[in-house]
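SEQUENCE-TO-STRUCTURE ENTRY
===========================
Question of interest: how does this chain fold, as expressed in C-alpha cells?
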Amino acid sequence: MTPRNDIKREATSIKINPQLWKQAKIEAIRNDLELSELVEQAIEKWIEDEAHKRVKGERK
C-alpha cells in the first residue's frame, strides 16, 4: 500500500449505510487509524483483489 504522509487528499461525499459507517468508525478507533485511512485501505484492498481475480480469470 502507498505511504500515507505525502499523498494529496481530496474531500468527497458518498452515501453509505449508517450502520456500516458506524462500524467503520469503531474499527478505525480500535486500529488507531483515521477514518479516511481505513476507507483508503479498504478500497485499495478491493482493487487489488479484483485485479488478482482478473489475472486468474475469475472475473467476468
Remarks:
- The chain has two helices and no strands.
